[in-house]
Amino acid sequence: MELKWCQFIAQMGYKAKDMKMTIRQRPEALARRVLEAHWDGVLPVDIRGLAESCGARVIDDPLLDVSGVVAIEGGEPVIKVNTNESELRQRFTIAHELGHMMLRHLTKDKTEFRDPSKNYTMANFDRRERDANRFAAAILMPGEAVRAVILEMDDADVDSLASVFKVSKAAMSIKLKSMGILPEWA
Q1: Does 105 or 147 have the greater pLDDT score?
Q2: What is the CATH topology of the domain spanning 4-140?
Q3: Which of 70, 129, 164, 184 has the most crowded Cβ, counting Cβ within 10 A?
């Protein structure tokens, strides 16, 4: 079964032989391609709009017993997000579930990912979950945009940057460490 987002990925210039290496090794590279194709450059990134432009339907579901779900329903990808969680958590959840979708974690045999909150940490040892987290961070906090905002702000710190990008302080701190802007021990 060829799914809609696979065609989208192909339209972005990836060839089938390139996909496995790129997806497995560099979720950030795929996130960059998605941003290039669909982001208007406005901060914070409109993650709902971005997910929808990638072919997913985003549904608010206050009855979910997990943070988020991405599933194939009627042949189309659907991202469900628990609206009882904070806005920042919901944004990361949508980006994370979009990561599962774009990284081709969904297949005809695996048509759903249900993600409890513990899956949204870098301490998770499942490669697919770590890659979805890396994709989410790259989508919500594009490295070039983080550097540009730091240069524009007089007193840029973790709190102010987290506010601009509408992410948690913990997510921004991890991003800044991965970019070499904050030391690992900070």
Answers
A1: 147
A2: Arc Repressor Mutant, subunit A (1.10.10)
A3: 70
